[in-house]
Amino acid sequence: MPLPPLLAGQVCAVTGGLTGIGRAIALSFLSHGAKVAVNYLASHNKDEQRLLDSLREDAVAAIKSRDQSSIISAEDLPLLMVPGDISQPETATDFVSQIVSAFGRLDTFVSNAGICKFEEFLAIKPDSFQRHLQTNLSGAFYTVQAAAQQMVSQSPQGGSIIGISSISALVGGAEQCHYTPTKAGVHSLMQSTAAALGKYNIRCNSLLPGTIRTQLNEEDLKDGSEKKAYMEKRIPLGLGKPEDMAGPAVWLAQPELSNYVSGAQILVDGGAYVNFQ
């Protein structure tokens, strides 16, 4: 039996919600009764239109999976899809403005959008470092700030802000020297915003995914690769799926379940961090 809807009436937003972890979280929010806004980088995916269409189709299926009596169609979905590059400050304010225009308010915000290109440290070019910094950390700052400003305007209602950090915030990665600092920064941002925004009843927390199979690492983790075999042996629960991140996000979005949780880091890594064998 599926759980009853836990986010009925909520308005939730996810950056980078067209693929991977962001998509899985957005679909789970929809299935739990929320109205959802998704940001995505236009023309970033070669099959963008197919992804947009399939997101609508999957959203209908997600809602019906929890409510078999639902007769919702793709045209009637409580789903807003907004293109924009989060590395640009104006994207954040535009995204939040469109959310409020469509749904009236904002209850939960997930800063998820990010990039990761594996590169040898000595060969990393300044433009690659800046691209990771601007997307992963600056983009998180801009969007979280815009979301918080809207939530404060709704005071005393409050809200939940979730930063998708990474296990890489806690451990090194030889080919991730331009990536791991940005993910540590996302968690640090959530700690500081938790301190800054608590007086407005806004909770800020980090989710730290481990090795989740997404479009970012599909080449590294393809079947038969040495890395895939190593990670499967290394992680007690095996490789993760984007859907594994959805439950913790729903929990942090639901105030009755996580009302006193703020400034926390939640590892969602299948036990990888504690397994040193």
UniProtKB/TrEMBL annotation:
* Cross-referenced Pfam families: adh_short_C2
Q: Which domain of life is it from?
A: Eukaryota
- One record GO biological process: rhamnose catabolic process
**Keywords of this protein's UniProt record, alphabetized?**
NADP, Oxidoreductase, Rhamnose metabolism
**Which InterPro entries does the record cross-reference, listed alphabetically?**
NAD(P)-bd_dom_sf, SDR_fam
Gene Ontology molecular function: any one: oxidoreductase activity, acting on the CH-OH group of donors, NAD or NADP as acceptor
Database matches in SUPFAM superfamilies: NAD(P)-binding Rossmann-fold domains (SSF51735)
Q: What does the similarity note say?
A: Belongs to the short-chain dehydrogenases/reductases (SDR) family.
PANTHER family the UniProt entry points to? (3R)-3-HYDROXYACYL-COA DEHYDROGENASE, SHORT-CHAIN DEHYDROGENASES/REDUCTASES FAMILY MEMBER
Protein name, please? Answer: L-rhamnose-1-dehydrogenase
The organism named in the record is Cyphellophora attinorum
